Give the backbone structure.
Amino acid sequence: FFFVSALSGPKRSSCSMSVSLMAFLGEASMDESISSLAKYTPRLGLGTTGLGMECNKGLDKDVDDYIKKYLAKKEVEDARRRADDERNKNPKPLKPQERQALIRQMAEKAQAIKDAVRAKLVAERAAREEIVKAEKERQIYETRKQVEYEKAENKKRREEQAVARAEYEEERRRKLREDLAREREVMLSEEAAAHDEFARKQEFQKNLRKIQAKIAADNMAAFNKSQKDMIENEKKKITRLRDEGKAMRQSMLRDRQDTIRDIRKKKETKAAAQKDAKEKEIEQRSGDRAVRLAALKQEKEARRQKELDEKRETIHKIKRETEEAREHLWKMREAWAETVKQGEGGRSPTGPMFPPLKNPLSPR
């Protein structure tokens, strides 16, 4: 009973043990039974037997059936014992020593049952492990045998494939050699035909170049002759045009000179007529032509003399300024030369700061 209670977990063990002890004690109530159980068996059902919850994981269907049968049998025995207790209306209460002895006896009996069940479970588990081990070994053997068979079949298949591949490769190489030989013959024949065709075309090109060179030479000779004739004709034409242009220019020059001469003659005649008319008018107005002419001539001479004096004065002024500038420049050059001799250095007066002197009277 204690073995079954231990295997069924702490809560189930405490409940079952409490019910059993209540049935055993008879006159004790539920609370008294639980308190007595807690007092005299403080560690029962709490995993002190060594199995605990670990044993629950290893139980299978057979163990559950065995436990159910055991519990049913125990219920029958408990019912019979309760019936006996009912018949004994005034049971004799047990002493604490007797109660402890009874509990100890029941615990020993439960321990014996637990050891027996454990041994049976261990034996069944060992038998199952042997069966599983044998099955695994058989499966391993079958698998190894199947693998060896497949290896042999694969090896045989690879050998057959290698032989077939070698035969196929040999046949393919033979056909390839035949195709290459046939293609080589065709290629050689085509190459010979192409060589003959190339030689024929080369000869044709050579003859064609000769003919073209001869035609080009003839054309060049004819072109040179025509160019030479054309050049001669152009030269003659240019000479003729030059002569005609020269004669035309001379004729135009003569015509122009004649025209200018006529115009000048007309102008002179007109000017003389105007002059005579003016002189006559002056003579008529003043009554003294000689005095008037002398006054005009004197006035004209005075005006011309004044202009000459102004021009002469301007020329003298320009010459004087030029001489002063030239003297100043020579002085600066001498000072610079003196500075160079003394080792002080300096810039040449003939540089861009001192441009050369120009004659203002020069036409340029």
